Amino acid sequence: MRKFSVVIAGGGSTFTPGIVMMLLDNSERFPLKSLRLYDNDAERQATLGAALEILLKEQAPEVEFIYTTDPEIAFTDTDFCMAHIHVGKYAMREQDEKIPLKYGVIGQETCGPGGLAYGMRSITGMLEIIDYMEQYAPDAWMLNYSNPAAIVAEACRVLRPDSKVLNICDMPVGTLRRMSQIVGKQPKDLDVRYFGLNHFGWWTSVKDKEGHEYINQIRDYVAEHGYLTQVEVDTQHMDESWQATHKKAKDILAVDDRYLPNTYLKYYLFPDDEVAHSSCTYTRANEVMDGREKTVFDAARRIVETGTAVDSGFHIDSHASFIVDLARAIAFNTHERMVMIVENNGAIANFPDDAMVEVPCIVGSDGPEALAQGKIPMFHQALMHQQVTVEKLAVEAYVEGSYQKLWQALTMSKTIPSAKVAKELLDDLIEANKDFWPELK
Length: 441
Ligand code: NAD
Ligand code: G6P
Ligand code: MN
Fold this sequence. Notes:
Blueprint: E1 4-9, H1 16-25, E2 32-38, H2 42-59, E3 64-68, H3 71-75, E4 80-83, H4 89-102, H5 112-136, E5 141-144, H6 149-159, E6 165-167, H7 171-183, E7 190-197, E8 200-208, H8 215-225, H9 240-255, E9 260-261, H10 266-269, H11 271-276, H12 284-306, H13 318-331, E10 336-343, E11 356-364, E12 367-370, H14 378-400, H15 403-412, H16 419-432
Parallel strand pairs: 1-2, 1-4, 2-3, 4-5, 5-6
Antiparallel strand pairs: 7-8, 8-9, 10-11, 11-12
Helix pairs in contact: 1-13, 2-12, 4-5, 4-12, 4-16, 5-6, 5-14, 6-14, 8-9, 14-15, 15-16
This protein binds nicotinamide-adenine-dinucleotide, 6-O-phosphono-alpha-D-glucopyranose and manganese (II) ion.
Manganese (II) ion (MN) binds next to loops.
């Protein structure tokens, strides 16, 4: 069987060990020739790189493994780049979350003003790695988790329309895992219909392979418990704040119970509740630094100290399985059905062709082919129109260096009460992001 070379961009990410473990777990279905880590922060990546080097020597000595900050060494002759860079890292995530809260506005990594601030940083980093890939591995595909995926995807559509970049999110697969537990099935036994934008969508159908529809059964469960399940279904999305998020789906469903909501809709439909429960001094970024980051990097240091990765403490999860399944779908033309972020082009009949939407696709060697989701109701359509306008204005602001357009993007966001607050916030964000954003005039 053919063997593949993979580079993980953002090698120092807390998600890197999980993806590496998943790749090794799939070595029969997706054989590896070489695996490389690439990051622009040598020190951060070295901790994970040194540990993974030991793990690979023990578990897959036949795979060539390196970690590097040199893009030529990292990208040359690779088949896939699995990307999860975070421009500005947790220090800037903390700012993205804390600055809006000063104005009583949602402080979130990908939604509202924090998401816009992060988007304006991420575009530059994404263009950099796409260009490296195209220079050193012109036939490769980039499978991209780097957030905010909606803005990154729109930026790719506008600025790199011919690049082989697929933008993905783990929330639909993570939630499907919960739904499958609710109905007593395996996630792979279920096919969904879904429409929306990234972190802004709804399931309209969840069926098994025999065609039995489970949406009503799941709706009744979610109306009572949200997506909280009886037993733990994943190692990801388990912290207390995530449990509150799964539970909150109950309130989102009550607003419109035709379809099952993505949990991220809470930031747009219940921003007041969210702000009321947020601390201005300790946000999710702090939780992640004290939790996942510490756990993953402590585990890596332990491996290096002891010289063995037996009982490594690294976990695989639905996040890792999704990106490996996607690589397999392209490598072996599996035609797997997967929810992806793609240009609409009629998939949602009554929504603009040039919007980047999240819908089920059939994925093969030529990439994703979107499945038609038909017309959507006015309520969902209007919400999506407002949000997609925010995302498009942000990308236009980036391309044109336009202060006005970014102010309009913030003003348009459902999370911000007025143009006045939007302007105050923008000025604060410009100051905090001055090392990262293009100059706005
Ligand atoms: P992290 O800070 O641990 O890792 C990000 C890494 O990217 C860091 O090591 C950093 O040095 C590196 N980096 C930053 N800019 C870079 C550049 N220009 N070139 C190369 N490397 C660069 O963050 P994390 O919490 O592990 O998350 C990583 C990313 O994955 C984030 O963007 C996060 O939002 C995203 N993510 C997305 C999904 C999804 O559903 N799409 C799910 C989980 C995580
Ligand atoms: C979900 C989303 C991702 C986001 C992540 C944040 O998985 O789909 O887009 O990056 O949550 O999780 P965290 O644990 O870092 O808050
Ligand atoms: Mn996501």
